[in-house]
């Protein structure tokens, strides 16, 4: 279900319904940052549980965490206000809302972003292992500080975008940061500190875009449309991860690790160019655009 975006789409729609427009980007940033940190913790703890009880133990722990995740839903999240407006909930509704520029722009953006992320993990872990001369099970010791620094680095751009309504400029910045970080890792592959610094820059750009895109998509839709829009957005997000794994593996076989980093730099520039068009980004910020759907 999560692989099709079913869980994250409901999460984004709920966050959009329960947060005001002035706090929405910060809420999405908190969600994105926690996902990044949880990913690194999963990489750190997965080998530990596998060593204790094998693959069965890993899945049992995942099942227990799934049950544990129900507690904040039960106790911590307030009920969503009910209204008389009918929500969009059919496949036809999802296809219809996907064709409109705000949802289409955000969905294409998150597809590109997640494709970059999926492809990066194909080459970044082996590169860190090679540069540090450490076992693969210890690579989380590098990922954790890298992720924490990148989450800290995204705070100012996200706050600046929200305060000054410069979301488009910050998306351009995120694409350029992804390109700069990937280029640094490609040019200086095999050297630990340049690769680590490049990874921080790379993931800072990723975290900025992952916070801004869902916020912009959410504010461009009404409460009735938000669930369908979030479903389309999340499906594109997970398709992007799948495509990133395929592209990363293909690139690794064709051009090696450095070639994949150069490919990621080119995709980062593509994301920046997509966001450079101010008219398309402005559509996502137009308060009454959702009334035209």
Can you walk me through this structure?
With 293 residues, this protein is an all-alpha fold. The chain has ten helices and no strands. It has helices at residues 6-18, 24-68, 70-75, 91-98, 101-132, 140-164, 167-187, 192-219, 223-276, 278-285. Helix 1 crosses helix 9 and helix 5 (101-132) runs antiparallel to helix 8. The protein is globular, with a radius of gyration of 19 Å. It starts with 5 loop residues before the first helix and ends in an 8-residue tail after the last helix. The relative contact order is 0.18. Residues 278-293 have low confidence and may be disordered.
Measured distance between first and last alpha carbons: 28 Å
What general form does the structure show? Answer: globular
Point out poorly predicted stretches: 278-293
Count of strand segments: 0
* Main sheet specs: none
Mean pLDDT: 77
**If you compute it from the alpha carbons, what radius of gyration comes out, rounded to the nearest whole angstrom?**
19 Å
- Approximately how much helix is present in the residues? over 70%
The assigned structural class equals mainly alpha
Task: Give the H and E element order.
Answer: HHHHHHHHHH
What is the percentage of strand-forming residues?
Answer: under 5%
Number of helices: 10
